[in-house]
Known about the structure:
GO terms for molecular function: 5-oxoprolinase (ATP-hydrolyzing) activity. Pfam families: Hydant_A_C, Hydant_A_N, Hydantoinase_A. This is 5-oxoprolinase. InterPro entries: ACX-like_C, ATPase_NBD, Hydant_A_N, Hydantoinase_A, Oxoprolinase-like. The protein is α+β, with helices and mostly antiparallel strands and about 700 residues long. Among the domains are: about 95-225; about 280-340 and about 440-500, 2-Layer Sandwich (Nucleotidyltransferase, domain 5); about 350-435, no CATH class; about 505-610, Dna Ligase, domain 1 (2-Layer Sandwich). It has 17 helices and 36 strands. It has an eight-stranded mixed sheet with strand order 19-14-13-24-25-36-35-32, with helices on both faces. A six-stranded mixed sheet has the order 3-2-1-4-11-12. A hairpin with a 4-residue loop joins β22 and β23 (about 405).
Amino acid sequence: MRGGRTGLKDNSIRPPWRIGVDVGGTFTDMALVDAAGALRVFKSPSVPSDPAAGVIGVLEHAAGELGGPLGELLAGCRLFVHGSTIATNTILERKGARIGMIVSDGLRDALEIRRGFRADQWDHRAPNPPVLAPRFLRRPVKARLDKDGRIDTPLDEDDVRAAAEVFAREGVESVAVCLHNAYADGVQERRVAELLADRWSGERMSLSHVVNPVVGEYERGSTVAMNAYVAPKVVGYLQRLNDRLLDLGLPNPILLVQSNGGVVSVREAAERPVNLTLSGPAAGVGALKLYRQLTGLDDLVAMEIGGTSCDVTLMAGGEAPVSDQLEIDGYHLATPAIDIHTVGAGGGTLAGVDNGGMLRVGPEGAGADPGPAAYGKGNDRPTATDAHLALGRLRPGPMGGGAVSLDPDRARLAIETHVAKPLGLSIEDAAIGILRLLEQNLLHAVERLSVERGYDPKAFTLVAAGGAGPMHGAAVARTLGCRRVFAPQQAGAFCALGMLWSDVRLDSLRVMDGDLDATPDAELEAGFAPLLEEGRAALAREGFEGAAADLQRVLDLRYKGQQWSLRTAIDGFDRAAIRRAFEADHARRFGHIQPGGTILITALRLVATGRIDRQPPAPAKVASGKPPEPTDRRRCFVDARTGWRDVPVYRAEDMTPGSTIEGPLIVEAPTTTILAGDGDRVSVDAHGHYMIEIGENR
Length: 698
């Protein structure tokens, strides 16, 4: 089928193509890029009760649009990448497996003590989230290693057998094993697994030295417990979806987006499903890599606003920071993850008045069903989408490919009932207040990943993504002081598109304790050797060798006396260069360095990357050589500075690459609507994307 005809009636796409599917809270998005680089985007409502139904649904919708059966669409697919919130939802909804845990004697309560961490140090009453394994299912066994991996206390095998009997009697579905200092050697944990396999018939076992061999019994224990908690549901879902798609005609197994922004096969993900916790949002890094390639800009901060939430991701110098400090619903996970900040601010975010008579926006959302009040599907409370509609920013009628329809009367009634009347405001002023408060939340979300990480947002281009992102991009950028806003033509499929520009990535770790300047090169080489061997083997299993396989060595470094380490990528063992790189990062993050201070190595890391061969995106087709003409004029509220204006409305398909238009204006695209303020300048690049130069900052 390569480069030939397909069974689809739409002959404008050339096989083989790549498909990315992102399951969001409101819509399931699909991006298809063909052999010539042409891009097509499709959307259909998500099915929260059955995410796989949402995946099949958007594929069937796409096949119908392209004029053929689903089997033909899948048969022409060379690469299928999937991002799902199923791991996150399993945690948030508390619907994971019944787990047991085997720990070293004396460490039974580490999960409950949590090192005393509290989100608010002044709030001593708010309860911590429930411990995943209740105390009677956390079974202590005699077994300990010293810090160098030597056996300090031999494993008592009778303790393990007794624990297995408890697990069998109590219906435990999944077991986590976290023995003292197992990061240094997994010998005792492996023996525990062998003994359990003989006496317990549960679904899965998770070993801490396999899942993430980090120092710290709490961090390692919390991570392996979560891995055991989500594994049966997540792995089962992924394997069933993979098998179903293969049965329907997909020629190759699917790949999955991990929290680290890379993709991996179902086979590799099955061992560490906890690494899929940020599966959907982390794909945004792939989209930023694409936009960096198209714009030549290295410093980008993405504000992806969907129907339920806003995910903020930052790329500085062409790299997106990765952290091991991930928290989901109060649970601490030591797993490699893109630094993403999420707030409950999306098109479906609910607004109302609290008991104190104050306007409240979020974090609750209306979701895909029933959705905003304007959908007419049972919700009578106003959302951000209803506010935009009441202010003339959105066109009434069908949206999202006809999946839903916007009714302005329902939107106005919801705002009047729940906000305007209680506050004594007009419907319009109430809608303005809803959006101002929402945009304040968006502003703080961007500052969390920029200002609080030592970056000046004025030096960044704001990427306004997600279906609702380009509606707020200019306003938030103006407040931040950003000079430019990049609004992708396919903003509503930001993560689905990013999946197609993500590479295979596997992270591995080995703890090391040493002085940066005093540790011999030979010792560092010996420490990295097993990581390099493991990385090459893992990439080979995924089909990447030679030039397609990249192995990046990283050191975890900190000053003597500090608790937390910073990751520093290295190219060789030039100590002066490593010190300069570490201190530059330290100065940016914390505002100071220790000149001549002792720098300690706390861990060796390897980032193994498999470079996926992909066709660069094709330039947009030029409709005509004439400047675009507005198809309509609509009275809308632009912003507090401009107020109400009759604003020209353009269709995205009429926008000519290379053209420039002065705001205020509205551009209506298939997956989003773009709003530019008075004095802003909107230009269209060769690929049909929009760059908004902010008027006050030009």
